Amino acid sequence: MWSSALHLLAPFKFGIAGRRVRFAQTTWTYDIIQTPGNLRLMEEQKTLLAAMTFKVDLHIHTCASKDSAVRPADAIRAAKRRGLDRICITDHNRIDGALVAKEIAPEFVIVGEEILTTHGEILAFFVSEWVPPFLSHLETLDRLETQGAVISVSHPFDRHRHPWNDEMLEAILSRLDAVEGLNARSLHAHDNQLSQEFAAMHNLPMTAGSDAHTTVEIGAAYLEMPGFTSAEEFRAGLAGSTIHGRLSPAWVHCITLVNKWRSKLGLKPRIGK
Ligand SMILES: [Zn+2]
Questions:
Q1: Given the DSSP bridges, would you call strands 206-209 and 221-226 parallel, antiparallel or unpaired?
Q2: Ligand 1 centroid to 70 CA: how many Å?
Q3: pLDDT the model gives residue 15
Q4: Which residues on adjacent β-strands are paired with residue 53?
Q5: pLDDT surpasses 90 at 100
Q6: pLDDT of 87
Q7: How far is the centre of ligand 1, averaged over its atoms, from the C-alpha of 48 (Å)?
Q8: Angle at 57 between CA 93 and CA 134, to 5 degrees
Q9: How much distance in Å is there from the Cα of 179 to the middle of ligand 1?
Q10: Would you say the pTM of this structure is higher than 0.70?
Q11: Residue 122, Cβ neighbours under 10 Å: how many?
C-alpha cells in the first residue's frame, strides 16, 4: 500500500521527471533531480562549489574483478571520452585495481569497493583500507565508518543480485549515506524504481552508476553533482545531485559470463598500468 502512496508523493519530494519508456526496458531514460528538502546538505559548501558541476559514474569494475576485463587505464580513457569528470572504481571485494587507476589519474579516480557481506552487497566510496568480503553487514559498516568512507548499497532491490529488503535496510538506515537509485545493469527497471521509492520514503540520497564491466557501458548512468575535493564534500553534495542515465542492453551480461571463464582459465588481462 505504501508503495502506491509513495508513487504519488515521490515526484514532489524528489522532482522525478523525464522518465519514459520506449519499446523495451533498455530504452528507459532517467533524469531524477534530488532536491535538498531536509536532507543533510551543507549550504556553505553548496554555495562554494555551485559554480562547479561534476559528472560522476560511481560504479565501475576493472579486470581486478573476475567478471570484468577492463584495464584501469582503459576505464579512465573511456570515461574521459564520455565526458565524465570523476569515476569511482568499485571492484568486487578488492581495491587493488582502483589503487592502480588512482595512480594513473589521482584527481579523476575515487577508490571504492563493492563488498559482499553476509546480508547483501555494500557499495563504498573513498575507501582507504581494503574491507574483506563475507563479514557481517554490521562489521563491514564498522570498518567503513572507521575510515570515513561514503556508504551506499548497490542495487538493493535487484531480484537477481543478493537483494536486500526494506526491513534489513531500515535497520541500518542511520548508517547509510545513500542507496543506489539507478544501476544501469539491472535487467528490470522496476527494481531500480523500488530503490528510488525506498530513498524517497526515507529521505535518503541516491547514488547512480553504470556497474560497467566493459568499456562500452561506462557512463551509462551517472550523477551530476556539485564539485568536491573530499569524501565530506562528496557526501554533502549527494543531496543536491541529479541522476542521469539509462539501462544497458541485456547482452552485456553475456560478456560477464565469458570473462568469468577467462578468469578461470587465466586468460584475462592483468591490472597493469
Ligand atoms: Zn558492481
A1: unpaired
A2: 13
A3: 35
A4: 226
A5: yes
A6: 98
A7: 32
A8: 15
A9: 13
A10: yes
A11: 26
CA of 94 to the centre of ligand 1 (A): 12
Cα–Cα dist 238/221, whole Å: 15
CA distance 237 to 7: 25
Mean pLDDT on 18-23: 34
- The dihedrals phi and psi of 23, each to the nearest 5 degrees, come to 60, -65
- In angstroms, what is the span from residue 232 Cα to ligand 1's centroid? 23
Q: Cβ contacts of residue 203 below 8 Å, gap of 6+?
A: 13, 37, 38, 39
Say how far apart CA 201 and CA 197 lie, in whole Å: 6
Q: Is 238 exposed, middle or buried (0-12, 13-18, 19+ CB in 10 A)?
A: buried
For residue 126, the CA-to-ligand 1 centroid distance in Å is 16
Query: Which set of grid coordinates corresponds to residue 169?
Result: 535496510
Distance (Å) from CA 1 to ligand 1 centroid: 31
Residue 31 Rama label (left phi>0; alpha psi -120 to 50; beta): beta
Burial tier of 208 (Cβ tally within 10 Å: 0-12, 13-18, 19+): buried
Q: What is the 176 CA–ligand 1 centroid distance (Å)?
A: 18
Residue type, 101: A
Q: How far is the CA of 114 from the centre of ligand 1 (A)?
A: 6
What is the CA(12)–ligand 1 centre distance, in A?
30
155: CA distance to ligand 1 center in Å? 8
What structural domains does the chain harbor?
A: 26-206+229-264 (3.20.20.140)
Nearest to 71 by CA among 211, 213, 184, 185: 213
Q: Which of 33-37, 156-160, 224-228, 247-251 has the highest mean pLDDT?
A: 224-228
